[in-house]
Automatic annotation (TrEMBL):
This is 45 kDa calcium-binding protein. PROSITE patterns: EF_HAND_1 (PS00018), EF_HAND_2 (PS50222). GO terms for cellular component: endoplasmic reticulum. It comes from the Eukaryota. One of its GO terms (molecular function) is calcium ion binding. Residues 1-16 form the signal peptide.
Amino acid sequence: MFAVLLLGLALGSSLALPIGENSPKGAIEKPKKIIVDAKLLKRPDHLEALPLERDGDINRNFVHEVLLGQDNNDLSSATTDQDKPEELTTLIKKMFLSADKDGDGKLSRKELMAQIVTNVLKHLDEGEVEAKKLFPAVDENQDGKISWEEYRLHYMIAKKIVDADHVREHMEHLQNLDKNTRLMIQDEEEAFNDADKNSDGLDEREWIGFRHPEHSEAMLSSMTDEIIKAFDKNDDGVLTKSEFAQLPPGEVDNASMEKEYVVERQEEFEQIDTDHDGKATREEILHFVNPRNDRHAASEVQEIMSIADDNRDDHLTLEELLAKKDLLDQTGFVRPVARLHEDL
């Protein structure tokens, strides 16, 4: 399993923002055009450097990001299937040279773990930089706080509910949205309010936590509660292995895929259940989703070694890693893309 975590997004709002709210009485202000790139304002479906998604699903990019230090939110349109092997080879070589601190041509467990930890911290830093750059663009009145109304405008566009040129006019008609869209908006508003601790709008630190919950203890705690809510069938506040490994609703045509899913979930549960009592407590889940938990790096070192260390000398050569590059490519990751757009 090659995977990275980074959180779920929904969008928009259920509150109406009056047009010309700050205009002289009776005047209707001409709507300002929203200029922030909508794609950048979407909160990621998973948390960077975390092994579980917000709904408890396994993040399938975890090993890829912590090993190669790359983000795969998008793929370059110029990339073709023919480009993939060569590009992945380049990424692995780059990682290897960075990790081989003593220059002996092979990676020890210590070197591999240090590289993984470095990549995780890099992801955390990149998320903070991205959030800080977006903050002044979303804070339209420049009062140092992002209100739900300000945020909602941009996310109505990001979700393609309305277009950028007419978003303000359409805010008065949100009641006409379909039920699923309204529910999605309500979920996003709840997440926004969770981050807004004193209910006065998000300051920069709260905004960072909202955008990237891996930076916020409160948001990681909220994520933990959502995972428990999704799987805790008997409402006892803890998860058993069978609860965590339950199949999602709907029928599965491929029985082998169904079995593989259950096995993968069970293995993930074993990592969460640190005291091996058959129950994953809230504290264990919270500890597991924390990206600064060294257990993630240690676990990935063990998995990578078991896959690529062919001669079992407890070291990895570049040749051994390249021989297993197909496993690193199973997420479909091809080339890194810039997280930040130059126009912000």
